[in-house]
Design a protein that fits this description.
single chain, mainly beta, five-stranded mixed barrel, 8 strands, disordered C terminus
Length: 184
């Protein structure tokens, strides 16, 4: 009988769309610095939208690259909307130190930003990830096989993302990411 040292995980992911805010480099007293951002995710009916705020640590080189490219647009107070996938949701309690609520307890939703599927700046699509090819089994193309290993232990995902720009007539045209030196 053989035993496996590999662990299995249950992943809980949050997918949605929201506004990107407060992109910053966090330098903790202990440990390495990391890229973080806030996401004001849209929630509820279209005619009465509410927002759920996530304080996210940006994970993965592709997501970090994309979020860093949005810094100028966010600093210029442009509306930067993203399609996203978050993981590892947890809450953090804190005490307000200033303002009307000074001394009161607050709760922050924290997560890791794992994937950015698209980016719009002031309503204009500037990035869209290409769909990943999936493996299927003999039951048909609608059944996708997934690895039982967590994403962090799986091999690297090829960088197949493309920037999208609009042509003069308003149609979208795919442009390789390397071809656009100064995006946004």
């Amino acid at each position: 009988m053989t035993t496996s040292n590999e662990k299995s995980y249950f992943d809980l992911h949050i997918t949605g769309l929201g506004y990107l805010n407060r992109i910053r480099e966090v330098k903790p007293k202990k440990g390495d610095s990391f890229l973080a951002c806030d996401i004001a995710a849209l929630n509820g009916p279209i005619d009465d939208v509410s927002y759920v705020r996530f304080d996210a640590r940006v994970s993965g080189s592709e997501a970090q690259h994309l979020v860093r490219r949005c810094i100028q647009a966010v600093d210029a107070e442009k509306k930067v909307m993203i399609g996203f996938r978050l993981g590892d949701l947890w809450t953090d309690t804190f005490t307000y130190s200033k303002g009307k609520r000074a001394g009161e307890q607050g709760v922050s939703l924290k997560a890791r930003l794992l994937f950015v599927s698209w980016i719009k700046v002031d309503g204009r699509l500037v990035y869209k990830a290409e769909p990943k090819s999936t493996e299927t089994d003999e039951r048909g193309p609608e059944v996708t096989l997934a690895s039982d290993r967590p994403a962090a232990q799986q091999g690297p995902v090829p960088a197949s993302s493309e920037l999208v720009t609009e042509t003069a007539d308003g149609d979208a045209a795919d442009v390789p990411a390397w071809a656009v030196a100064e995006s946004f």
